[in-house]
Amino acid sequence: MKSLSIFYVAFLFITINVNAQISEDSISLESSTGIIRGTLLLPEKSEKVPLVIMIAGSGPTDRDGNNPMMKNNSLKMLAHGLGENGIASLRYDKRGIGESKNAGITEKDLRFEHYVEDVKSWIELLNVDKRFSKLIIIGHSEGSLIGMIASNTQKVDAFISLAGVGRPAAEIIKEQLKAQPQFVLDQAMPILEQLERGEKVEEVPPFLFTIFRPSVQPYIISWFKYNPIVEIAKLEKPIMIIQGTTDIQVGTVDAVLLAAANERTKKEIIEGMNHVLKMAPADRMKNMQTYSDPELPVHDELLEKIVAFINEQLD
User: Fold this and answer.
1) What is the pTM of this model?
2) Which residues on neighbouring strands pair with residue 160, listed in sequence order?
3) Which band of pLDDT confidence, cut at 50, 70 and 90, is reported for residue 175?
4) What is the dihedral sign for C-alpha 80, 86, 87, 93?
5) Which listed residue, of 38, 121, 195, 218, carries a Cα 20 to 30 Å from 289's Cα?
């Protein structure tokens, strides 16, 4: 398998009954740096079923869509909703996160490509599993870019972007920095421009250290190399772009940009859905409250649109 000289072996563990329709298996990829662990959710059907591989967003986000600061269970809810509609799914903790903690790489050695190669290895593993009829990638937020890059070179039947950005990461960060005081902007912009050129910055002001500390710069440089518009244009398979209107992190303009880059794309704008895929108002404070509500379900329309799109691939 092609994955940065990492050799993967799969392990399946005990099955846990969730309800009469679906079950869950623990599944792992063992790498030279440790085990990457995930959950394989399976509808209880005798015939082959489509399989979705879910890719979480940026930061310390686990297989369920949660991180140490907030629990919303968005990806877990989506997986269970798909399972109840006859669609299997894999969701996993990224290397260094949750139960995949021991597979982490030191910050100075981590690259964006590590996440892409992990997805490719999951695809290669599950493509040979005879229980599945189709394989679809779903990438949320940063996972959208990771998923579209991995899907370009692997055997994938369709790709779905959830709240994925349509502009290079450097452009997004510059836009966010414009809301900061002028002195912050004046010192941050030269650093950003140097990182865009692939050059590390030795001297970083203390107030920018959290964002641009030397140990994280190699990852930022590797991330900045990719333009979502360029990457999605390469895909020769059905694509669905989904974006919510009350997402305070990614705007509908990003969905428009992504959709325009590939004629195979179907764009869906969901009214009232925010970045964690739940019904939320535009008010920032009330919107953020849903990020820590593990009982609030994902937007009903989201599940309906994904199920319909996947069923179209089975015809």
Assistant:
1) 0.91
2) 138, 240
3) confident
4) positive
5) 38
